[in-house]
Amino acid sequence: MTNFSTGAKSKPWRLVRRYVLRFLLYALLGIFALYYLMPLFVMVVTSLKSLDEIRAGSLLSLPRDINFDAWVTAWSGACSGVQCEGLRPYLWNSVKIAVPAVLISTFIGAINGYVLSKWQFRGSNIIFALLLFGGFIPFQVVLLPMAIVLGKLSLAGTIPGLVLVHVIYGISFTTLFFRNYYVSVPGEIVKAAKVDGAGFFQIFWHVFVPLSAPIVVVTIIWQFTQIWNDFLFGVSFSQAGTQPVTVALNNIVNSTTGVKEYNVDMSAAIIAALPTLFVYVVAGKYFIRGLTAGSVKG
Amino acid sequence: MSKHILSIEHLNKNFGSLQILKDVNISMKEGDFLVLVGPSGCGKSTLLNCIAGLEEVTSGVIKISSQDMVGVSPKDRDIAMVFQSYALYPTMSVAKNITFSMKVRRIDAAVQQKKLNEVASLLQISELLDRKPAQLSGGQRQRVAMGRALVRDPQLFLFDEPLSNLDAKLRLEMRTEIKRLHHSLNASIVYVTHDQIEAMTLATKIAVMKGGEIQQIGSPNEIYSRPANMFVADFMGSPSMNLIPAIVRNVKEGARIEIDCGEDKPLTLIDPRKIAKLDNGEEREVIVGLRPEDITNPENREGASIEVATCLVDVVEPAGSDTYLVTQLGGKNVTARMRADTIVRAGENARLAFDLEKASYFLPETGERLN
Description:
- The complex is a heterodimer.
- Chain A is mostly helical.
- Chain A folds into 2 domains: about 1-65, no CATH class; about 85-290, MetI-like fold, CATH 1.10.3720.10.
- Chain A has helices spanning about 1-45, 50-55, 70-75, 90-120, 125-135, 140-150, 160-185, 185-195, 200-210, 215-230, 230-235, 245-255, 260-290.
- Helices cover about 25% and strands about 35% of the residues of chain B.
- The interface of A and B includes residues 188 and 211 of A.
């Protein structure tokens, strides 16, 4: 009897405590989410205001009337230096740099990972360690040697030159991703394929590539974000006409004559960031899944 | 006379300074079912991988159908292999798994389809052909793995512990099925297992391995009744062979065996056969090996070699078909296999018949067989 009465007393309390804790948890998460969204919110509302309104109103207030002029200017009219073509040509440059660089570095990473995990040879672990080390060398250190190499290859200031730079720099990470993913593929599968008569590339194409969707998504997102957002290589190894969008954005924001057009700057920044946002929204769930794949055997 | 399908001569394999295989010699005829058996780490899987060409050998010769295979890649050895983990290609359907080897060899699609259907109906997996390996049960995966090997119709099949991932009941079923396939296809098979019962039931020829060396090669019967050394005696058979310390001496009637049984007077038994490697009159400490079934109810056995003695029973273990008695001889637990209807209790004396004609004698120092 006594057991029953204490049980009945504590049960509602336990429920209340659970709801309170739950509420606190959601409140905290909500605050964090708002805090992270704040800059984006300011950028979006500022880009939709007119200059007068920006000068008059507060940073956080909603625009009185929505106005896309700043977006149009940023896209096709804003001046970077002497040219006033907006971001459009540079966005296209970025695409021409990022897409081949992402694809090539992902492919090379897949082959490297396949070799380093399943066709190990004497010294392959040292090569892997050196490749990894390459990923942690600061960008600044390689600027000068890279410039010399590009010069010797007659690729200085060209888009293929920038593609080459990003491919080389990306290989260490793409190799790491694929190698760690392929390590979890049982070695007996490779043996079975060898006995079945498949060679190095047949095993790669028929057995490993079809298994790779999750890690390919991870690698593509990672590489695309890195290459798209790169500024240092872009500003160092480009010339007028081959600059990527990040460099153009910088030039638009910094080359003002007279009034600083915050609304144009904000729209330009959003336009420059949209492709990476888009990639995350489309493939984000695979990204999380792929990062954790292999950690738990399934 | 059927031809030699596999012969291995003086094979050595090192990993760095570690010797994995030491002077392995094996020959096997067409249609043989050779089982490599031994405890884990004895090198049996490495040996199989060397035969497959998945591991390079350090020295020695491997011939398949009289052709030297050292340096030949696995795909050109005309072998097929079944793995412990099944090693099915996870992204391919069952049909694609089975036809993969023909696809990479660019065999005509119609031929592929015909062979696929034959193998699928042989293994009763026709209704599974569109499934992915993840959708199959363990036994079905095992069948697909076998189908992938069978479709090749190779000179030599290699099985690497194919049944050890299956549950006990399924393992027995598949064991019978493998034996049936071997019989109906007259296939030549090299089969690796650590399970001595699997080895006994499947093999036409057994190679017992330990520490990278072959301890004994022979028919299951030879291995079981005339083990070459104490390791083989102990490893093969369940319950394992009784290994009883004793003192023996060749006398007029045969070999006299004295076993300490805890009393003042040792238990004395006479084996009508003399021990060949022992000089007349020489007295020696040896290990006497007797299978549990060779120590049994006196009314079960007759003959000149039967010696009956009374022993104190320590433990009684009824096992349904038989009853096992454990007694102490020479300071060791000795198991006797009695009829199931034997009525005896622990702590009582029981009369046991020792069939000494079946006895093996080993040197205690080296474990080497004496008779």
